[in-house]
Each structure stands twice: as structure tokens, then as C-alpha cells.
């Protein structure tokens, strides 16, 4: 299953007018195993979840999210952002097994 982990994606407009509200959408491939399920042999599948998502814009904190086992496989996250300045939005996902993935998207504000 490890080959199906990662590949984070961010989708948002690359340009916007100052003050415009844009939608940021993201997806990451991750099993989000709760630690409560069993495999075909009847053994418990260990918990493997994304614990934190940290989002910055121009290296300034925008959102810090703590996730738990209640988040589905291949989690999708969407939020709105007011376009005030041009810059780079960066998202970093960290899981309970030490996995870290990041992606970024640029925004030009006119």
C-alpha cells in the first residue's frame, strides 16, 4: 500500500483580483487506517493516519489542522481564501509514521 501514499495536490486559481474570494482544494492519497480493522488473515491493521495539515501563505501561518481517525481514506480538504497579496500557498501533511508530504501553488493578485 505504500506506493499509493502521497501525491499531494492543490487546485486553486493562479490569479485573482485583490479582495476576491477563491477556493482552495486539496487531495492526498493516504489509507487513513484507524487501527480497528483486520486484514484477510485476521490481524489488526495498525493505525496509519495523517495527524496534521499545516498551511502557510508566503511563509505565514494560515491554517493548522489536527486530524484523527474519523477522516476518510484519501482525504480531501477545501477552504476559501481572500486574495490580498501575490505569493505561494504551501500545504504540509504529516502522518503518525513519520511520513511528510508537501505541495504548493502560486497566486498572482492584480
Automatic annotation (TrEMBL):
Domain Sulphur oxidation protein SoxZ: from-to ranges: 11-105
Highest taxon of the lineage: Bacteria
SUPFAM superfamilies: E set domains
Protein name stated in the entry: Sulfur oxidation protein SoxZ
Origin species: Acidithiobacillus ferrivorans
